[in-house]
Amino acid sequence: MGETKEHKARLEEICESLDIDPEGEKCKAMEGLIKEAESFLKEDAEDDIRDAGIIANAQRMEHYEISGYGTATRFAKELGHSEIAKKLHKTFKEEEDADEKLNKLAENRINEKAKS
Questions:
Q1: Reported pTM
Q2: Domain extent at residue 98
Q3: From first to last of its 116 residues, what are the pLDDT tens digits of the chain?
Q4: Do the Cβ atoms of 42 and 7 come closer than 8 Å?
Q5: What is the domain-level CATH number for residue 86?
Q6: Distance CA 49, CA 89 (A)
Q7: Is residue 2 in some structural domain?
């Protein structure tokens, strides 16, 4: 949760430097991913299968964030905002790291239990 707060603060700082209001529209795609995850949690499943599904849903959200931060980083570079690009890239790398942690958790433990 602390990392998410850092990401939010970083985005607010970027928006301020660009004179952009950070309070925009909600992302409908992310809302859809969250609804799908919530729907999955309501299903009747064994604990190991539920754990594997939670990780899968979390990874889908991470991949969406990775894509967004990667694109924003590229745009910032193209527009000559190198400091902003560095900040966005830092968040991009943190999202990649989170995805890798989820992947290792799934590979090393959860998916094996869910198969059995």
A1: 0.84
A2: 23-115
A3: 688 899 999 999 999 999 998 887 788 999 999 999 999 999 988 888 888 899 999 999 999 999 999 999 999 999 999 999 999 999 999 999 999 999 998 887 655 665 65
A4: no
A5: 1.20.1260.10
A6: 34
A7: no
The Cα 31–Cα 13 span in angstroms is: 24
Q: Is 41 inside a domain boundary?
A: yes
Residue with tokens 């989170």: 98
Give the closest residue to 116 by CA, choosing from 51, 60, 39.
51
48-54 long-range contacts, Cβ below 8 Å, gap at least 24?
A: 48/110, 48/113, 48/114, 48/116, 49/114, 51/110, 51/113, 51/114, 52/106, 52/110, 52/111, 52/113, 52/114
